[in-house]
Specification:
By secondary structure, this protein is α+β, with helices and mostly antiparallel strands. The protein has 2 domains: 59 residues; 71 residues, no CATH class. Helix content is 41%, strand content 17%. α1 runs antiparallel to α2. The structure holds calcium ion (CA) (2 copies).
């Protein structure tokens, strides 16, 4: 890429000195070529980014699109904080950019969070799950684990 640019700059310089009637047409062609090259470079960077995103998702998903279960916190002393932002920080590259689903269950059981009748501050694919002890009738959240769906 750098070499191509150098050649083009050199050509532009020569054409500028030639000052023929065709010079402006040649210049236009060169400018177009330059724009094409820059466009190519940008496209190839986009492709690389797309590839990296795919790899991140491939690593995170099981055979069926779910990540593994995350359990980073315990209800004591104040809350069970299973927020997506925390999971991302602690597990770099393991969760895709836009999870479209979330499942939460009482850790080590098959009891879905939705069946505990506890109140959650956050519970969505882009937030994760946050349960505060103070919000519960019995003063204590269950210990939850969550996983994300990466389409
Ligand atoms: Ca409880
Ligand atoms: Ca937990």
């Amino acid at each position: 890429m750098a070499l191509k640019l150098l050649l083009i700059v050199g050509l532009v310089f020569l054409v500028g000195r030639a000052a023929t009637a065709d010079a402006s047409a040649v210049m236009e062609n060169l400018v177009e070529t330059l724009e094409d090259l820059v466009g190519e470079e940008e496209r190839s960077m986009d492709e690389q980014q797309g590839l990296a995103d795919n790899l991140v998702q491939e690593e995170a998903r099981g055979s069926d699109g779910w990540t593994h279960w995350f359990d980073r916190d315990n209800p004591l002393p104040t809350a069970d904080n299973e927020a997506l932002c925390e999971h991302r920080i602690e597990n770099p590259g393991e969760i895709c950019r836009h999870p479209s689903g979330i499942q939460a269950r009482v850790k080590g059981s098959n009891t879905p969070a939705t069946q505990t009748s506890e109140y959650f501050v956050k519970f969505s694919p882009l937030d994760g799950l946050v349960c505060r002890d103070a919000h519960q009738l019995d003063g204590r959240c269950e210990d939850y684990e969550v996983r994300y769906w990466c389409p």
